[in-house]
Amino acid sequence: MSRVPGWIGRFGARLTEVGKRLDERRAEAEAEEDDGHGPGHPHASPDQVPAPPAYAPAVGARPDPAQAVPWGVRVAAEAGWRLLVLAGTVWVLMRVISAVQLVVLAFVCALLVTALLQPTVARLARHGVPRGLATALTAILGFVVIGLMGWFVTWQIMENLDNLSGQVQNGIEELRGWLLNSPFHVTDKQINEIANNLRDAVGANTDQITSAGLAGVTVVVEALTGILLAMFSTLFLLYDGKRIWQWTLKLVPAAARPGVAGAGPRAWRTLTAYVRGTVIVALIDAVFIGLGIYFLDVPMAVPLAVLIFLFAFVPLVGAVVSGALAVLVALVTQGVFTAVFTLAVVLAVQQIEGHILQPFILGRAVRVHPLAVVLAVSAGGMVAGIGGAVVAVPLVAVTNTVVGYLHAYSHRTALLQSPRPHGATATADAIVPPSAAAAAEPSPAPEADARP
User: Fold this and answer.
1) What is the pLDDT of residue 296?
2) Cα gap 112→140, rounded to integer Å
3) Which of 318, 336, 194, 158 is nearest to 328 (CA)?
4) Could you tell me if residue 151 is left (phi over 0), alpha (psi between -120 and 50 degrees) or otherwise beta?
5) Cα 286 to Cα 318: distance, rounded to the nearest angstrom
6) 9 to each of 12, 13, 19, how far by Cα in Å?
7) Are 304 and 440 in contact (CB under 8 A)?
8) pTM of the model
9) Residues 18-38: pLDDT tens digits?
10) Secondary structure of 404-415 in HEC code, one letter for each residue
11) Which residues have C-beta within 8 Å of that of residue 107, sequence separation ≥ 6?
12) Which of the residue ranges 137-146, 212-221, 227-236 would you say has the lowest mean pLDDT?
């Protein structure tokens, strides 16, 4: 028993000695690595990079690639790819709108009609009429008035078609005589050549005219479908517009929801002001131009006045087309002098409209620069025809209101979330008069009901 403990002691001492030697070797290896020996050193690590010799030229470190690009190029690149993303989004959106163009135009027309009729529904509801009954009465009355206007124009044209054709023939003969006796030196042979060219053009394009007529049937069917869709949309917007708006807000991200909730009522007020003002201006144009051409004995003065009222909803283009139509009817039925007086009446009323009526009635709520109106009408007409030209200007007006409000809202939110000033800055702010401080902040507009 005396040998076993001694053997165990010697074995433990041996292990202790081996451990010390391993610790010494490990310490020597770490010391050599700290001295920076290269791979040629007997104790150097194989992964170490050799130091350059003393006679080697100095080479500067390569900069970060992002830092090597000029600042202007980096800003242009950042803005460029964001613009590409926005352009791609707009392109996809336009493709989707083109695919469902009929639905989009019908819904936008429903919004315009709702903006016109909603104050009547609200007024009836305030007087104790149930909202469903108020919506039904207002919608039926509005649709009946619009339908009667269309029926009246069609009826007047059909009733006066025979008389108008005879007057057109007489007017053409009078125009022919005036051209022969005019200082333009137009000969009878030249007039006959023009008439023959027109006749040949109509005969050569008979197939195209027939196909256009067939396409017109398709357009009529689509128009009836759009009218029915707009009527149903108007009914639902008048009756349940507030809940539709609240449901739409739930689709907006929570961070942006307060700003959108504040911009919605202001956009609706702008749209309502635009529709009301346009209706009033169109009615004044139709009444005064209609009275002028009536006293000038131009045929179908009342249907022409109704057409002038309807065309007034297409900014700029509508006034030109309706005025040209009235002048053309006066020219072929009553002669050159009546046409000149008709043109004078149309230009006078349109000048009064552009410089007095629109600024006074529409006001600043929907003030849009004339260049923006021209570009919007042109773009809307290219994208969606007459319907696009009608909705282009209210869309631009609403967008202008929304962007302006969101900009003011973000600025006000940034001011509220900024840290309070300290020291001398706080003292300087404290002595600012309250009136100056109030003038520096944008005053929020009063809230309005978001119900369309």
Assistant:
1) 85
2) 16
3) 336
4) alpha
5) 12
6) 5, 6, 15
7) no
8) 0.64
9) 777 777 777 776 766 555 544
10) HHHHHHHHHHHH
11) 229, 230, 233
12) 212-221
